[in-house]
């Protein structure tokens, strides 16, 4: 290209500014000190002339180099056409492969998915069938255990309780595997639950409560004195074993919460049965002692009965303290605390003492009876007559008899006053009992 007066270097620079270029043209044709108006026609003509010059140069270049430009353009067009044809061929091949893949994979996958769903449902049915079989086996097991219990075999009570807990887990949907899901919708399982499991649980609880209610180890009433034993060793051990089975059964069948910790678990059925036993002993003792204080000839026999009841409570406390808390399937296992062994409840006595807020059962028995006995004595004195005069006259004898009653009642069954087999020191309880009777007589 011929040399041009146009400043191509400035126009093609990366830092070219149209405003700066126009401003330079205006300043070349005008003096900044001249008054308005400015002469803009000259710079505008210059710009138009430069544009025409550039256009002329472009025409010249394209005319001189027309053949190379056409050749390069044709080559590029041909190359683009070849690339397009190749890409279209690849796209067609890919489309055909996708259609073949859809035929060979997608359709087979849909068929395989149907087979998978059918197989999964068959497996769930098989698992449910195994669970039903397990439930029926446990149902037959509980039936056999209940038949053994009806024959007087108390040793089957705890295994029966564990069987009922296992069935309770399955019925509640808290089993240990996926096989236990859906059992509640099986008719035979519902029938087993209503006609076998529920009656068996009621019968087992009734039997356990009856054993606790009939617990008796004292021989005072059987022998008529404190120095003879009315039960043989075998009979005593059988009573302990039978009661131990009943107590553990009540502990295991007590309701539990899903998130209960062993330290927070309260065996409500066990506590209720034991509290009912203590309440019956208290009510009977208080009623009989109130009658005996009004008719003193009966006092000796009545105090003997009360001593026998307290001996049974002492024996029950000893038995409860010797029974370790059974492992409950619905509760996490507990580990003894080496730094504080008392923090871990290891026997069946602690929950009852905690519920009654007392340190011992005999103390609870004597103090509860003494708290209500003063009112009964005041009623006798308020009625007056022979009963009140006789009671006041024999106050020293009554004091000695009550103290002897407490002393006799706080001994283990089968022991005498000579062998010193007292369980703890009960002088304070004896003083409380004496004060509840003798106290009103002094006013």
Automatic annotation (TrEMBL):
Keyword Transport: no
A GO cellular component entry from the record: Golgi membrane
Residues of the Conserved oligomeric Golgi complex subunit 5 helical domain: 201-405
Positions with biased composition (Polar residues): 228-241
BP term (GO), one: intra-Golgi vesicle-mediated transport
Highest rank taxon of the organism: Eukaryota
Keywords assigned: Golgi apparatus, Membrane
Region described as Disordered: spans on this chain: 222-241
Annotated Conserved oligomeric Golgi complex subunit 5 N-terminal domain residues: 11-142
Compartments where located: Golgi apparatus membrane
Pfam family, one: COG5_C
Protein topology in the membrane: Peripheral membrane protein
Segment forming the signal sequence: none
Descriptive protein name: Conserved oligomeric Golgi complex subunit 5
Gene coding for it: COG5_1
């Amino acid at each position: 290209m011929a040399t041009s007066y146009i400043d191509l270097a400035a126009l093609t620079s990366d830092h070219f500014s149209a405003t700066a270029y126009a401003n330079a043209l205006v300043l070349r044709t005008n003096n900044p000190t001249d008054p308005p108006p400015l002469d803009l026609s000259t710079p505008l003509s210059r710009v138009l002339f430069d544009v025409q010059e550039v256009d002329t140069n472009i025409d010249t270049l394209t005319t001189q180099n027309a053949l190379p430009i056409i050749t390069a353009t044709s080559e590029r067009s041909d190359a683009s056409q070849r690339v397009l044809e190749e890409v279209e061929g690849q796209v067609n091949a890919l489309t055909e492969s996708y259609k073949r893949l859809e035929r060979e994979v997608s359709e087979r996958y849909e068929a395989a998915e149907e087979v998978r769903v059918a197989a999964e449902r068959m497996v769930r049915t098989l698992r449910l069938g195994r669970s039903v079989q397990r439930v029926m086996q446990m149902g037959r097991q509980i039936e056999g255990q209940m038949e053994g219990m009806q024959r007087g075999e108390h040793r089957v009570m705890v295994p029966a309780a564990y069987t009922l807990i296992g069935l309770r887990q399955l019925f509640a949907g808290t089993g240990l595997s996926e096989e236990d899901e859906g059992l509640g919708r099986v008719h035979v399982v519902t029938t087993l639950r209503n006609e076998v499991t529920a009656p068996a649980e009621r019968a087992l609880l009734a039997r356990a409560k009856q054993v606790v209610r009939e617990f008796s180890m004292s021989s005072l009433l059987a022998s008529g004195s404190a120095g003879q034993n009315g039960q043989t060793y075998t009979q005593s051990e059988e009573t302990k074993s039978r009661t131990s089975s009943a107590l553990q059964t009540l502990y295991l069948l007590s309701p539990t919460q899903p998130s209960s910790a062993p330290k927070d678990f309260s065996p409500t059925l066990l506590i209720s049965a034991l509290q009912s036993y203590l309440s019956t002993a208290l009510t009977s003792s208080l009623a009989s002692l109130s009658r005996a204080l009004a008719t003193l000839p009966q006092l000796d026999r009545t105090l003997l009965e009360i001593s026998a009841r307290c001996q049974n409570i002492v024996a029950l406390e000893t038995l409860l303290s010797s029974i370790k808390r059974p492992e409950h399937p619905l509760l996490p296992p507990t580990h003894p605390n080496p730094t504080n062994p008392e923090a871990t409840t290891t026997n069946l006595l602690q929950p009852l003492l905690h519920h009654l807020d007392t340190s011992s059962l005999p103390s609870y028995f004597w103090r509860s009876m003494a708290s209500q006995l003063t009112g009964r004595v005041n009623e006798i004195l308020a009625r007056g007559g022979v009963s009140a005069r006789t009671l006041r006259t024999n106050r020293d004898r009554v004091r000695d008899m009550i103290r002897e009653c407490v002393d006799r009642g706080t001994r283990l069954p089968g022991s005498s006053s000579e062998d010193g087999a007292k369980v703890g020191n009960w002088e304070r309880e004896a003083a409380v009992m004496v004060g509840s009777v003798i106290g009103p007589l002094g006013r």
